Amino acid sequence: MIYVENKDLVIPGEVLAEDDFYSGRGTFRENGKICSSLMGLVSLRNRKVSVIPLKSKYIPKKGDVIIGKINDVKFSMWNVDINSPYSGILPASEVFGRDKKNLNRIFNVGDVLFLRVVDVDEVKKAKLGLKGRGMGKFKGGIIVSIAPTKVPRLIGKKGSMINMIKDKTGCKIVVGQNGLVWVKGEKDMEQITKNVIKIIEKEAHTSGLTNRIRDKLYLDIDGEIPEGLDDEEYDFESEVNLSNNDNFDDDSNNHRRNSFANKHKRFNKKFNRRNSFNKKYELEKPRLQNFKAELEQEELEAKKKEDKKRNDDFINNLENIEKSKSKKSFNLNRKKSGFSILKDNF
Question: 57: Cβ–Cβ under 8 A, 6 or more apart, which residues?
């Protein structure tokens, strides 16, 4: 038996279900009953009951892609703030390989990076890396912080929400799984994007959010909402969850199946229209940077400048020597000519 519905707000200790349901994340089982262990929203998936916390801190996990900020430079590593109670480190070997270089020449305190969690030890300290497409240092832009649990809502299904924002504002947006979002564009568009992201974080649990965000973007940028927009927002996952619920009798289930079939047809039409949209606006990431190659190139250019300066100095010295010789020769000839004139006079 289930006592709650999908997306219901629950508090710690509240009974959610019993009997044939399974206990998921954010819940515990006691005396055959499934109870919530935190305050959050109910998630029902295939008879599995979970609770998604309204707010939580980021816990690093191997394979996560995150955004971090350098807060210290040491002899062989960088310390990185990853918006978590736990710290992150970026070893120099992840950037240079076995070469030993000056770390300050690559990343300094305050630099913001797009990173991957390579490993997490027993005390949740995250080892970070830059291997992978798009990993590297951000240049310019602003950082917006949201609750890590709201990241999926910001991205949307197949990137629909984030792509809509990018398309309308023209901003580049990169979302880290640790709740940090990098935004770069025109200053006014950056501010609009930041405001929209904060609204999504605040209203992530509400329905019709995509339409409200779309309307706000039109109002803030164009000053008006165009006519003829489709206001229907189809929640496919919610419909699937409800169809698997045992609380409905047969007549109700039959009615729901018919309703589900009709909505599924409409969903397919909308999905086909959105396919081209999703392919066109893929999530953008920063350009991959080869830090080792860049450093070697800098050293090569510095060496070329030094060699050129040395050659110029050598040529200048030769020219000075030639000038000095010619001057001495001129003075000597002048003296000789003077002696010859005196001799002729006598």
Answer: 84, 85, 148
Q: What is the domain extent for residue 340?
A: 297-346
- Residue among 174, 175, 164, 279 nearest 215 (CA): 164
Is residue 191 within 8 Å of 145, Cβ to Cβ? no
Predicted confidence (pLDDT) per residue in 176-197, tens digit: 999 999 999 999 999 999 999 9
Distances (CA, A) of 202 to 153, 199, 222, 267, 305: 11, 5, 24, 27, 55
Q: How many domains does the chain have?
A: 4
Whether 72 shows a pLDDT value over 60: the answer reads yes
Asked if 7 and 242 touch (Cβ cutoff 8 Å), the reply is no
64: domain CATH number? 2.40.50.140
Question: β-strands 142-145, 172-175: how paired?
Answer: unpaired
Do the domain assignments include residue 1? Answer: no
CATH of the domain at 149: 3.30.1370.10
**How far is the C-alpha of 19 from the C-alpha of 308, rounded, in Å?**
82
